Amino acid sequence: MKIKAIKSGLYKTVGMPQFGQQDVGISPGGAMDRFAFATGNALLENPESEQALEILLAPTLQFEEDGYFVLTGAMHHGVTLSEAPEGGSPAPVPHATVCFASAGSVLSFGQKAYGFRAYLCFRPLDATSKAESPNSRTHGAFDEVCRWVDPGRKIRVVEGPEYSSLKDPHSFLLNAWKTTPDMSDMGMRLENAFEPPTCTITNMVSEAVSDGTIQLTPKGPIILLRHRQTVGGYPRILNVITADLDILAQYAPGQLMWFKKVTIEEALAVARLKNEDLERIKNK
Q1: CA dihedral 261, 267, 270, 274 (to 10 degrees)
Q2: Which PANTHER family match (predicted)?
Q3: Percent of the chain beyond pLDDT 90?
Q4: Is 280 contained in some domain?
Q5: How many domains is the chain built from?
Q6: What are phi and psi of 43, to 5 degrees?
Q7: CA 5, CA 131: separation in Å to the nearest integer?
Q8: Which of 24, 81, 132, 208 is most buried, with most CB under 10 Å away?
Q9: For the domain that residue 226 is a member of, what is the CATH number?
Q10: How far is the C-alpha of 143 from the C-alpha of 146, rounded, in Å?
Q11: Total Cβ atoms within 10 A of residue 280
């Protein structure tokens, strides 16, 4: 991907998770919002392993080769593409729609409309014949594409290994939680305005954790995300289902969330529906 920043921002190159090294303390990692990452590559008809830019604070970018691109994930107002840094009338760039960029053209972003992480996927022109041009392909409205999202917009969880030690699980699931500024690709800390939850376990040996594990620490709950550690020493009271980790990737500090407990069977049904939604985009 030959793209350079002409105005700084906060972004990085991401790809698929890399499994097989958790025994030595390395998490699979990869794109934080895997669905947004996958839909971008699907619209471009890229290999699913093709890398993308994961953008937190939008830079101004210049394309150094001809090709097609698409923006998914967080949406920005006023995204435009100009033929050169100092000239040409900027053209609007619609969200989740494949556009063509010539070498030297400049991509600019306005303020975020929603979401936290945007994804820029790219396909060089020399990898695409004119008959295969993906230009103007789009995946449609979010609610039509993402049938797998909870209708009540709650974050779905299953019981964790130490769930039974939680003194008041009903209260934990009933009340709203707010994300704090204490967040990264490793995890996010939550807070609420009620009495802090407690466990009957006061000390435990470090155990394996996974993507989405909710640990109850003395300072409150934390949700482990894609780049988390592989072991932890706090009670694992709940676990966010894999599909909803992509939703959490779009939460900014200060946002409210509610949890909804589901069964393993329900979580698997959501995963199947999510895969079906992605296949529909690939086959458009």
Answers
A1: 120
A2: 5-OXOPROLINASE SUBUNIT C (PTHR43309:SF3)
A3: 85
A4: no
A5: 2
A6: -65, -35
A7: 31
A8: 81
A9: 2.40.100.10
A10: 5
A11: 15
For residue range 49-102, what is the model confidence (pLDDT) as tens digits? 999 999 999 999 999 999 999 999 999 999 999 987 666 689 999 999 999 999
Helix (H) or strand (E) holding 175: none
Helix (H), strand (E) counts: the chain: 5, 20
Question: 137 and 170 share a domain?
Answer: no
Mean pLDDT of 181-208: 93
Question: Is residue 36 within 8 Å of 117, Cβ to Cβ?
Answer: yes
Domain that holds residue 170: 155-264
Nearest to 73 by CA among 34, 19, 99: 34
Vertex 61 angle, CA 60 and 63, to 5°: 160
- Helix 264-282 crosses helix 34-44 at what angle (to 10 degrees)? 20
The SS3 call for residue 208 is: strand
Amino acid at 75: M
Alpha-carbon radius of gyration of the chain: 20
- 272 part of a folded domain: no
- Whether residue 111 is found in the same domain as residue 20: yes
Q: What share of the chain is helix, strand, coil (3-state, %, to 5)?
A: 20, 35, 45
Residue type, 41: N
- pTM, whole model, 2 decimals? 0.94
> Quick one: 8 and 135 in the same domain?
yes
Check: CB of residue 76 under 8 Å from CB of residue 111: yes
What is the distance between the alpha carbons of residues 36 and 139, in angstroms, rounded to a whole number? 11
Contact 250, 74 (CB under 8 A): yes
- With respect to residue 63, please indicate whether it lies within any of the assigned structural domains: yes
Residue 273 counted as domain residue: no
Residue 204 and residue 233 in contact, taking contact as beta carbons nearer than 8 Å: yes
